[in-house]
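Quick check before the chapter quiz. The format below is the same one you will see on the exam, so make sure you can read both the input and the output lines.
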Amino acid sequence: MKKKIFIVSCFFVLVSFTGYGQADCACCTPVHHQFDFWLGSWLVKNTQGQEVGKNTISKIEDNCILVEKWIGAKGTTGTSHNYYDANDGSWNQLWIDNKGNILKLKGGLEGSSMVLKSEMIKGKNGKLYYNQISWTPNEDQTVSQLWEIYDENKALINTAFLGIYHKKESN
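Here is the expected output.
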């Protein structure tokens, strides 16, 4: 009898240490945490220190999706879903705003920055361009977001946005 109790006890100890029997966490790998530096509630300012919006980034679906909720100082709003696609090893963003604009981005971590790019888009002038957005964590706990537009030859056309994310104080 003691031998059976010992074997059953060893089985339960083994199960608890190996995680066997616990729910799998599909999005708990290190790569799924690469964009976690963007999580939180933020005041977003331009380089002159003027507030340009507020943003809240949180995780949903068992930490598989980062959801962005943007409120611009001039009334624009938008939401993005950001996720890691293990099938092709890329991070992806789908952005939709209250003006009907849609932006699809794909990329990954480059150094400490998350860099996502759109596919080529034909502009109103008939020329091709793509969007590139980079999020970089800074030493002062802020995050810089740089949105640039490039032509088909990878030449910078325009900087569409440069915002500095400042964490809101918790209440």
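If your answer matched, good. Helices lie at 2-18.
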